[in-house]
């Protein structure tokens, strides 16, 4: 009967020790012992660098989306709409990116920048080029208003919301036709009804009014004293306009906001 050979325990221990220990380095070369903390630190630095690079790319893409929206928009857009159209987190991110865009435009000397006007933001050329651009025919002609229309618009702007009776009391003439013309030009709109007898309509200025006059909101309207100084030549020749300026009352605390 065949006998099974027995392997001495000492031989098994020797083999285990041989294969369980690190391989010897080639003759003449020092043995390299891995430095785990150093490797971990290097790997962490690499990962963080990739994450930072990815964040920069995401911010750059977000700025490009916002810039594209502003470029195509034909009217001012508030931050809520900008964040919606450009797929941003919220209005705060939109404002931050607008600031970054303007810093970039100013640094490289662009002929345009993002301006805040009429309760929103719009990409606009700088005033320096306005007269030159007008010769190209792409800029709408300046809005020209008659003296009665300007007087009526001034009264509505400073006393809104105001009924027609108050406007006519200040101007001393019938203003129905002038108000209609201002509404056709989208400078005046009917806001609501008064609680007074007969519940007359109340008139307000529009978003287009703010846009044409370069105002962010109604708080940017000149104060009465400033208006007297600016319009001194006109009020001297036109007592009715002087009366309108003198009748300006403080603006409402509620600023103009873009409707949803």
TrEMBL record:
Q: Give the residue ranges for region: Disordered.
A: 1-25
Asked whether the keyword Cytoplasm is assigned, the reply is yes
User: What GO biological process term is on the record, naming one?
Assistant: cell division
Give residue spans, biased composition: Polar residues: 1-18
| Keywords associated with the record | Cell cycle, Cell division, Chromosome partition, Cytoplasm
The answer, when asked if Transmembrane is one of the entry's keywords, is no
Give the protein's recorded name. SMC-Scp complex subunit ScpB
Its source organism is Anatilimnocola aggregata
